[in-house]
Amino acid sequence: MQDIIIGNHRIGEGNAPFIIAEMSGNHGQSLEKALEIVDAAADAGCQALKIQTSTPDMLTLDSREPDFIVRGANDDWEGQSLYELYTTNHTPFEWHAPIFARAAERGMVGFSSPFSVEAIDFLETLNCPIYKIASFENNWPDLIRRAARTGKPVIISTGMADLADLERMVRTVRDEGNDQVVLLKCTSTYPAVPLDTNLRTIPHLRAMFGCQVGLSDHTMGTGVGVAATVLGATVIEKHLTIRRSDGGPDSSFSMEPTEMRRLVQECQQAQQALGTVHYGPTAAEQKSLAFRRSIYVVKDIEAGELLTEDNIRVIRPGHGLAPHYLPQVLGRPARQAIRRGTALTWSVL
């Protein structure tokens, strides 16, 4: 499968995961705080900063009819109408340009999740380099199709999607002549728990659709992201806030900056640790060979004297014959006198 190039970053096997910090509504309707989150993402080592492009009217109706009231999804959302929730959560359109500019200044890719076709039209005026389709939008072909037609990478969270949904969304992108699709394994609960995460799906998705696969992670901590990296995730997305105690619609399942920095470091280390299939000492282990056991003379031996368990032993360091040769050398005569502390070699027998 092809790697995907985004700016100076390569998404693909053999590269550290592309780590996306999701701002969502954690800016608390303050541009100053939004820019603080951008800086925190950069300081943590993230490769990308993502926002969301929507208005409440793009998403729902201003209604408090029972169907429009949030029940049982997240304690911070409970009892709000969808319209109220999305009013709190949305990022004003006039903030997009300064947020993207700050991300670029800090060496990150700035991009967005559009929640309507009109949102993509707006983002195109800002030359948004990637489009992310959220799990709650992945059953809407028109949105996916419009994103695919830009010719830019399309990242799709797979929360709640069955196999038929997945096949449809990937085909929708590819039918537009766009093969730059990334699927993110996602559990659409807020927060999610590891038990529901099913990371073994990641290599299965990659094999089934022949595309880059990553993780959109709503669990707490770094463990799930690191495990996903080991299973081949090339993209990791996590929500970022300055302080969970600040509150907000997504704060309860967002990372703080120190946690995000640890995630970036641990995912990089996990990817590096995968290495290749290798047996025998590595180049780094060569010096450690001296600390293995080998056969040494432990008492002075005269020329012609037989080697016995009394005058030779398997000890450290490892400069003599390997221990598995002990049965072959016991009972053999020494060719010359050998001093105590000499590594036994074939040349003295």
From TrEMBL:
InterPro entries: AFP_Neu5c_C_sf, Aldolase_TIM, PseI-like, PseI/NeuA/B-like_N, Pseudaminic_synth_PseI, SAF, SAF_AFP_Neu5Ac, SAF_PseI/NeuA/NeuB. Its EC number is 2.5.1.97. Keywords: Transferase. PROSITE patterns: AFP_LIKE. GO terms for biological process: carbohydrate biosynthetic process. Coiled coil: none annotated. This is Pseudaminic acid synthase.
